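Lab meeting, item 3. Inverse folding demo.
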């Protein structure tokens, strides 16, 4: 078997768009059971994991490395993932960190009640539970996604109530201070990266029109919200005008803010009542 150093340069020289230094190090850490600093110390040792070749071939073929190794990181925490849930992304980390700052300022020391609609891997729900004084409910239409959220809650020692539900269908007699969601908002498969389209769940990606799930959430939200509340959403960069119209329709007395992500693209919508 080659050494990690030999294999690193062999993979880089493939000039495969799916093979980056980040991907390689994550694969190496997984097969070696070492952290990156530990791995670098042993970079000239041989790769001994008998599954290495199969794992490498899957990544070369285009399968996301997070699905290959079975986990992803989100805000410094480990989350199990498979192709039943979206891979957590850096933009969604910003949705969470923005919301944490907003909740802290808006509610102070109050213990808040949060609903995450379309929880997927649970990365939003669990991160909020770890970062805020809160009670969290995580809802998803997919039972497979709920199962993964429960696994990740246990992994991260987070207390999250899970509900298999299409939006609010199975949520009864609950009132929330915060509703957060990263719903499907892509109208056309033609605009999705082929790797994402092939491997990640279409149910969590596609919506026609792109405002479909936002309006579903908006239209019944007041039934499930306390008098003072925050709504937080990840959005597509071309959705400002139609979402403004929906906010004006369903939340005429609320303040709302569109926020850009780290790539300077419009990515988040926050709606507040009671500022």
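The presenter then showed the designed sequence:
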């Amino acid at each position: 078997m080659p050494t990690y150093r030999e294999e690193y340069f062999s993979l880089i020289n493939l000039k495969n768009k799916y093979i980056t230094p980040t991907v390689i190090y994550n694969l190496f850490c997984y097969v070696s059971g070492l952290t990156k600093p530990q791995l670098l110390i042993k970079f000239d040792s041989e790769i001994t994991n008998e599954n290495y070749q199969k794992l490498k071939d899957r990544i070369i073929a285009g399968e996301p490395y997070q699905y290959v190794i079975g986990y992803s990181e989100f805000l410094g925490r480990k989350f199990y993932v498979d192709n039943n849930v979206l891979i957590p992304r850096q933009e969604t980390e910003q949705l969470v960190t923005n919301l944490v700052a907003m909740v802290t300022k808006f509610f102070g020391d109050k213990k808040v009640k949060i609903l995450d609609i379309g929880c997927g891997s649970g990365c939003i729900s669990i991160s909020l539970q770890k970062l805020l004084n809160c009670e969290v409910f995580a809802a998803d239409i997919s039972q497979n996604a709920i199962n993964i959220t429960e696994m990740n809650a246990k992994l991260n020692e987070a207390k999250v109530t899970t509900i298999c539900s299409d939006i609010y269908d199975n949520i009864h007699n609950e009132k929330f201070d915060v509703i957060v969601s990263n719903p499907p908002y892509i109208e056309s498969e033609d605009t999705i990266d082929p790797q994402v389209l092939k491997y990640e769940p279409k149910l969590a990606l596609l919506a026609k029109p792109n405002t479909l799930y936002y309006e579903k959430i908006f239209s019944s939200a007041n039934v499930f919200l306390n008098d003072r509340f925050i709504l937080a959403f990840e959005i597509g960069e071309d959705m400002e005008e139609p979402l403004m119209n929906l906010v004006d329709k369903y939340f005429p007395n609320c303040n709302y803010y569109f926020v850009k992500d780290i790539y300077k693209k419009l990515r988040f919508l926050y709606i507040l009542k009671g500022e």
